[in-house]
Amino acid sequence: METGLGNVQIAEKPAGIEGAGFFATSLEKVVGLARKNSIWPLPFATSCCGIEFMATMGAHYDLARFGSERLSFSPRQADLLMVMGTIAKKMGPVLRQVYEQMAEPRWVLSVGACASSGGIFDTYSVLQGIDRIIPVDVYVPGCPPRPEQIIDGIIKIQHLVESESLRRRDSNEYKAMLNTYGIE
Amino acid sequence: MDVAQQDKILSLLGEKYADQILHAGTVFDFFTITLKKDKIVEVIRELYDHPETQFQYLTTLCGIHYPDLEQIAIMYQLHNLYTNVRLRLKIYLPVASPTVPTLTPVFAAANWMERETYDFYGVVFEGHPNLKRILNVDDMIIFPMRKEYPLEDQVRQDKNDSMFGR
């Protein structure tokens, strides 16, 4: 399609019925498309995975290409919580509070071995995976993962965001899932 | 520290506290005096005030668990900043009831160190102004540096012992 914007990539339009002067598709697909390409991540970086994240945001890898130009440092405006690094047990309640402060719909990306499972820190003071306190959508393995892997995780999140039903967050299953984490 | 200095410290302590000294000698290149626990604060105050010793800086204080002896040792490391002489004092407490008077009246710096020792070893410092956990989560129910508690987190499920040669 000729956009007059040079090499700028425009997101593919969803499947729908097209005619002269109109285009019809489901609201869900349009909302999914918009959400997918404007994810605001909240970086929760505690250690070396955070350094890889900085590389991911930098010019070489440039997460902005995927619509995540704008990092949100307030959980209330963020769509995606990116947990990168070792979470000590003492940090657990803080992470949980950050998650609870995020508005629905919200997603969680667990980056690296420590956030996903405790990693090498199999010890009394470290949380053995953030999924013990908050639900996680995508896990990125690695110690630490390369920026390519983090971008792969983001793309997996984008896929979830795009294809999620608009009513999922109102469903009883979703509420029951949150209840298993003790979140109202 | 040369032997003359060691003898001087020992003879100074011996004037008042000869009955408190259990052992003295160089352990791991560090002059160490093992004492009875009863008058430890008095002894340290004496070492602080006496013009010949002037151990007026508390480098560190920590616990050591000896499971075979069923004892917890408290190690005090003192430093004379005038002459750059260091001294280590050690007392032993029974693991069943590890209590010792607090050192905070002599060294304010002992406050956090004693909290840490309580946090990790469960040593009760009597008279401490604020004896509660300092590093670990408040709801922890164990004293993690005692040897009867495993280092690993027991909730971990992804580790197969056969892969770690155990």
3D structure, described in words:
The complex is a heterodimer of chains A (about 180) and B (about 170). With about 180 residues, chain A is of the alpha/beta class. Chain A is built from 6 helices and 6 strands. In chain A, the strands form 2 sheets. A 4-stranded parallel sheet of chain A has the order 3-4-5-6. Chain A has a two-stranded antiparallel sheet with strand order 1-2. Chain A is globular. The model of chain A has no long low-confidence stretch (mean pLDDT about 90). Chain B has helices at about 5-15, 40-50, 110-120, and strands spanning about 20-25, 30-35, 55-65, 70-80, 85-95, 100, 125. Chain B has 3 helices and 7 strands, in the order H-E-E-H-E-E-E-E-H-E. The radius of gyration of chain B is 18 Å and the shape is elongated. Chain B is of the alpha/beta class. In chain B, the strands form 2 sheets. In chain B, strands 1-2-5-4-3 form a 5-stranded mixed sheet. Chain B has a two-stranded parallel sheet with strand order 6-7. The longest helix of chain B is centred in the N-terminal third of the chain and has 15 residues, at about 5-15. The chains are: A alpha/beta (about 180), B alpha/beta (about 170). The interface of A and B includes residues 89, 118, 122 and 123 of A.
